[in-house]
Amino acid sequence: MLKLRTCAAKLRPLTASQTVKTISQHRPAAPRTFQQLRCYSAPVAAEPFLSGTSSNYVEEMYYAWLENPKSVHKSWDIFFRNANAGAAPGTAYQSPPPLTSSLSTLSQAQFMVQAQPNVDKLVEDHLAVQSLIRAYQIRGHHVAQLDPLGILDADLDSSLPADIITSTDKLGFYGLDESDLDRVFHLPTTTFIGGNESALPLREIIRRLEMAYCQHIGVEFMFINDLEQCQWIRQKFETPGIMQFTNEEKRTLLALLLFEEFLHRKWSSEKRFGLEGCEVLIPALKTIIDKSSEKGVDYVIMGMPHRGRLNVLANVIRKELEQIFCQFDSKLEAADEGSGDVKYHLGMYHRRINRVTDRNITLSLVANPSHLEAADPVVQGKTKAEQFYCGDTEGKKVMSILLHGDAAWQEQLVTLTLSLSLAQIGFTTDPRMARSSPYPTDVARVVNAPIFHVNADDPEAVVYVCNVAAEWRSTFHKDVVVDLVCYRRNGHNEMDEPMFTQPLMYKQIRKQKPVLQKYAELLISQGVVNQPEYEEEIAKYDKICEEAHARSKDEKILHIKHWLDSPWPGEAQAVISIAKCPASLEPCRILKTRGEMVKNRTVDWALAEYMAFGSLLKEGIHIRLSGQDVERGTFSHRHHVLHDQNVDKRTCIPMNHLWPNQAPYTVCNSSLSEYGVLGFELGFAMASPNALVLWEAQFGDFHNTAQCIIDQFICPGQAKWVRQNGIVLLLPHGMEGMGPEHSSARPERFLQMCNDDPDVFPKLDDFDVRQLYECNWIVVNCSTPANFFHVLRRQILLPFRKPLIIFTPKSLLRHPEARSSFDDMLPGTHFLRVIPDSGPAAQSPEQVKRVLFCTGKVYYDLTRERKARNMEAEVAITRVEQLSPFPLTAAAGGTEVPAAELVWCQEEHKDQGYYDYVKPRLRTTINRAKPVWYAGREPAAAPATGNKKTHLTELQRLLDTAFNLDAFKDLA
């Protein structure tokens, strides 16, 4: 017992009486056999603890002494030595000599009664047995028979632990020999192998340990630093006869293994990423879901790679078989919009009655691309959102299950998502080239999650382990990992030839009986079923599948709506309690400054955001903002969470106290994983259309580590997954001499992925609204706080949902000219896609010689330079606030000066930024009558310089080009 040893080490100087009083109160009950010690005359101070209900304290002192006699006080040492040596009652205890005695002159004999010569041997043997039991608990999984093929070691190590008894020769490791096998030893409270027996012969102890830890289940749990949790796991796996199944349960388990065999026969040459070799995944998932439903869970959200997805859809989610089979018909076309995706990437949502518990349960399998773990944080975010909206603060009603292949376990995202509450299942193939750690699941040790390895060719062991895993989560609300050690019968996919790279393994696989056949033969041998019954069950299931296959030919059934994993049936209401802000919290300087702005009826960027959020909260819109340092803002501009400067950890979120009955506001700093966090927030936004979910990068550049989420889920979301999503990405952007990693949100990447046509000028009256509906996302770069205010509100007030990409400023957060009036935010005002010049150039358009188009922060550089050059009448500046979908009709107003040159100005380099996107669209607005010139930085590989002087030189060159009216004459 690691925890008891730690306590004893700390208490070594204390007396017997003091020791037993200070041992933790959370102790297992003492076995009845220990009562024999109560007949002895113990140390006087300990006598009260040897009577009544306190004997379990003394028992633990006894076992602590067995492990290390020096870990207890000398008075206990003398007592236990003499009692074990057979001293008569009343004579076992001797007081230690007084402290004034000269210890150097006292012999060992003066500390205790002279006992029989075998006293030390007896103690050592008991200690050896305790160590033996502990060795199996710690390292038994290294010896377990986990590989169904019998050719690989699941832990990548062919050597056997020296302290595991695999032969009588190993007894010598513990100082025992074959003659000790029939000796009876008392069992400690840290094992349950005895059942109702408190002592067993050594031979039986070893046999029971082997049955518990060295068969088809390998358990890793002794690294968990909680005694109660370790004892719970020991009881689940050590108790004799605990893994029992009725004949009916076995027949049901057999039936769950049938589906994959039908798919193989029907589409043997079709790429479907079948589950052959791991068919047991289906009863495993069903067991987890059934047990969790029994414990109160009513919503399960799953994420998995493509392998086995069709089987999971059919037999776990219970998707109609004809909807699955029709995906194999190449003649059918989707009856709804969207590009669609391959059948083994798709997900779905289904609510049904759980036949085992007679409770309603909702199951959602999240769609996933070939980036196998990309769905992990999405699942976690969606799970968190569903828990939030139903008030499930402890995760008792909504849970997630993630599945991974063993190689994918090494992917960074698995480690990132392990810190969130989940059940994990991994299934393995050849691991030798996939990792350097013993097991693929080793990363789960970081979060103290128990790991249950199980041979996937033993369906009953798998089902038992999954039952325990579900009970663990329900009991402790903590992560748990089930590692299904299996094989892949058909290589990467059904068209792949694995013999090229794994010839020896696949020779063995070709000989391997499928688990369905092996389990059927076992049940027939046990008399659970007979051969005719088994064949009848197969024929009955085949008939069901064939009838569904016939129905799948009907073109009417194929509709993309059947593959939605996150439908929005109605408004979700958040259940949350709001605490009052401490009255002693003094408003900081930032808030006082905001108060002054309000008096002057002006807003800066942070206040505009605050007002947008506040107005939506009043209207019942839940707002969630996350990212790195978002509570205060990366640039210390936001301060949505106030911290008491005198009381530790006392905080307040004023935005949760603006209005009676308002919606809740959630703001939370995130970890330094853009990949994981953005996926999480995307999943959260999937749960409800009635929430504004925003993710802010610390710097816009950092979104590049989340590119997989952007490319696979956000950009093609509606076309690929038939999923509208209103997530907002706030990406700080601007060239300010801060170097190539703190400057550019890479607007060119987002614009390149926009689906609006640069060559089509609208002729429809409703084109502007239609543009928004048909685009894949909206990209903006606002130059005023008011426009930022409006675009945030528009995002949630639109009758549909599109992702919104906002290139937010850095220096403009406090720029004295980047201010807006309340008048620009009152009822009747709205978001301006284009802001034309409103100065002298607009008053006398005939004098305008050049129209500069720009977006975002560079506008303020241009206006300052124009004023310095006294060219306000000659040069007009038009701001494009919404870049995609490009506001063709609004931008046309800036091109109505016939004699003026058109120039696109940007601070980004020419091969980056907006120019390549904007140029053809501007030309479309003028029917390509004029060229669109460029003023900006030269092409470069890096997004920005980190040298301040170079930055200013580049900026001045940009401005010189923009305002030199002769600059483009030679090029015309």
From TrEMBL:
Its cofactor is thiamine diphosphate; Mg(2+). 2-oxoglutarate dehydrogenase (E1-like) component of the 2-oxoglutarate dehydrogenase multienzyme complex (OGDHC) which mediates the decarboxylation of alpha-ketoglutarate in the tricarboxylic acid cycle. The OGDHC complex catalyzes the overall conversion of 2-oxoglutarate to succinyl-CoA and CO(2) while reducing NAD(+) to NADH. The OGDHC complex is mainly active in the mitochondrion. Involved in the inhibition of cell proliferation and in apoptosis. It is an enzyme of class 1 (oxidoreductase). This is 2-oxoglutarate dehydrogenase complex component E1. SMART domains: Transket_pyr. Its EC number is 1.2.4.2. InterPro entries: 2-oxogl_dehyd_N, 2oxoglutarate_DH_E1, DH_E1, KGD_C_sf, ODO-1/KGD_C, THDP-binding, Transketolase-like_Pyr-bd. It comes from the Eukaryota.
